[in-house]
Amino acid sequence: MMSSHGVIILFMICSIWSVEVHGKNNNFIITNFGGIKDGKTDNQQVFANAWKKACGTPGGTVSIPKGTFVVSSGEFEGPCKGSTHFRIDGTLMASHGGSGDHWLTFKKVDGLTLSGTGTIDGNGASAWSSCKSNKNCDNRPTSLKIANVKSALIQGIRLVNSKMFHLHIHESENVKVENVKITAPEDSPNTDGIHLSRSNNINILNSFIGTGDDCVSIGHGSRNVEVSGVFCGPGHGISIGSLGKYEEEEDVSGITVKDCTLRKTDNGLRIKTWAPSKSSIVVSNVTYTDIKLESVDNPIIIDQYYCPSGKCAHDGESSVKIQGLTYANVRGSSSEKTAVNIQCSKSKPCQDIDLVGVKINYNGQATMARCSAGDVKFQGTNQVPSRCNS
């Protein structure tokens, strides 16, 4: 007769056999695939192998334990057999230098969760130095790109020191970004926190973003976007655009920014378009509400003569139409006298811009508003500023 100890051992062996044979083991740990967490060895193939297993398993998970794993590049592509989880509790480190569109990308995945307590480190300092001597240094990779993804949750992770954008969500829908922290030095070039393009139903919630460029940049084709509970600074603020630089751009609509704090940013709430423009699109139905400003440059700005180099000819007007904007309960301090600066296209003037409950001071004094080619209304009383001065 088999002892109870023998029965337990037999049960464990049968359970392991069942997990392996019937595919019930859906947690694929990087170190079990030969991952080396020494901060030196390239684990690109290890990650590719683990992803292939997880993607091919219903409810599959790739798990990155604590430690630093260097990955020269990562292409994590679906479709997968059901929802897929990428769990980061260690650090993913990019290689030195590098060029191209992205470093890590998830594409064609339905039901993606990217979460954990770990960090995606873009190793940006190894590429930023080239921008000091070469102003045209845009061929640097975004750290994390989400492309053609449906129903995704990005939660809890940190993204630091990207060579270019930290997170780019492109041609995706139903994506929630929640409780993430994104940081880079304030002088790091083009290190936008989160950039959106051609995406629908995107929620960016309760996150901290401080970089060398826009905390959030909402690009063309963005629809039904909510940015809520975001702390922004340092950086260039929360922006729509730039728009109109390329042909075949798409409209931007249904944008809500609420319950956010901006501290010592170069801009606050900004819309920027090129003049002249190569595309004629519309920005509409945009609401900013319950925004706290702390010593912010250009707290409210519409710039339809956007020129980051300062050397633009401006031999034409922007053909981007801006309409249906509301700024409600935007309060706090500006770092300059002009708190509202609305410079709209003369060929397509802005329409239906309402300011309600706005109160912005400069060194304890009242601020002013400059407006051109815009239908701007200050609704209600006791607003600061209370009217356009020009």
Helix content: 10-25%
Unreliably modeled segments: 1-23
Number of strands: 34
Terminal Cα span: 97 Å
Oligomeric status: single chain
Number of helices: 4
| Estimated structural class | mainly beta
Please give the radius of gyration in angstroms: 24 Å
Give the overall silhouette.
elongated
- Mean pLDDT rating: 92
Largest sheet: 23 strands, mixed
Question: Per DSSP, what share of the residues sits in E-state strands of 2 or more residues?
Answer: over 45%
Relevant terms:
elongated, 390 residues, 23-stranded mixed sheet, 46% strand, eleven-stranded parallel sheet, mainly beta, single chain, disordered N terminus
Write the layout of secondary structure elements.
Blueprint: H1 4-22, E1 27-29, E2 38-42, H2 44-55, E3 61-64, E4 68-70, E5 74-77, E6 84-88, E7 91-93, E8 102-107, E9 110-116, E10 119-121, H3 125-128, H4 130-133, E11 142-147, E12 150-155, E13 158-160, E14 167-170, E15 173-178, E16 181-183, E17 194-197, E18 200-205, E19 208-210, E20 216-218, E21 223-228, E22 231-232, E23 238-243, E24 252-263, E25 269-273, E26 282-296, E27 300-303, E28 321-334, E29 338-343, E30 350-356, E31 359-362, E32 365-366, E33 368-372, E34 374-379
Parallel strand pairs: 1-3, 2-4, 3-6, 4-7, 5-8, 6-9, 7-10, 8-11, 9-12, 10-13, 11-14, 12-15, 13-16, 14-17, 15-18, 16-19, 17-20, 18-21, 19-22, 20-23, 21-24, 22-24, 23-25, 24-26, 25-27, 26-28, 27-29, 28-30, 28-31, 29-33, 30-34
Antiparallel strand pairs: 31-32
